């Protein structure tokens, strides 16, 4: 591996004969396979051999942040400049994590056993999606940490304590709609906790929340001309533009969720037969779409010309190393960055704005609520009903209805 990074025999020999040469070579090979540049590989190689030469046998297999800082900054010969120390620590930390030698103390989570049993129940018995499990685990941790910080015990929790949670923590962090979501979550969490004996029975029934009215909110759809401007702004020959254009078209044309775009695989795009298969996260089943020409062209150009040669099945790959599939949050960042660049104003500037725009466009074209719901992958018609409030053409027809002289 070192022979492909360095040109001189002296440098190759120094790295090959240095301590932990095999471990360093494995790491560099992994970085190279993920698209690291030659300059980046040389920097990583120099940093890791420098740190390895100053590690003791006791460090093999277990290095903490404090110990790494001691290795780098405690060196008296040569004295390391602050900027160089930061580079060495950053490079060595990534290498040690790759080896499994990095020790990062976890923040203690109160009532951890009860939390893990709840997570197992969500994942194994309820078979909730990974996204839902992560979100609910995060909410549970926040609640349990609040209990610990206020000196409360889960086993002796009282209804007034739940009210206090909403009145103190909730009022600072949640909107009215978010408070309702949190109340629904806490009912589920405390019902499960009661089933395993972690809290008193019936505690979940004491949770009350404010009313929520059907179709009370407006969708945050963009004007379709703005959607066209966003897509047009991603027209270019560089890898990022080609990739982003394909992503934007999938979101706007099919109204996909960001996780569905991130999970899209090459084998789900059937260009020969003009079909696109999407795994619907909410329905938990595949859905077949016709592969329309603009999307087929954008996907084909990215896959054939711009996509890096990596072994991942997912279509969309990071532009920078490590060259791994992009995540759902990265989809949000891509869309948000391009919407902000156009100076657009909306309640939400992310992938869901394009999903809402897709629904509003279909409604304006005359599709029924059922057809729009099926296109978006809704399980029921209720989520689709909110778009009827922004169908201005139909509302205008209602307003102009002749009431025959009635006042």
Automatic annotation (TrEMBL):
- Keyword S-adenosyl-L-methionine listed: no
Q: The organism sits in which domain of life? A: Bacteria
One Pfam family of this chain? Phage_integrase
Q: Which InterPro entries match?
A: CB, DNA_brk_join_enz, Integrase-like_cat_sf, Integrase_catalytic, Integrase_recombinase_N, Tyrosine_recombinase_XerCD
Recite the UniProt keywords alphabetically: DNA integration, DNA recombination, DNA-binding
Instruction: Please list which residues make up the signal peptide.
Output: none
Name all Tyr recombinase domain ranges. 217-400
Core-binding (CB) domain ranges (all copies)? 109-194
Record bears the keyword DNA-binding? yes
PROSITE patterns given for it?
CB, TYR_RECOMBINASE
Official protein name in the record: Tyrosine-type recombinase/integrase
Q: Which organism is it from?
A: Paraburkholderia sabiae
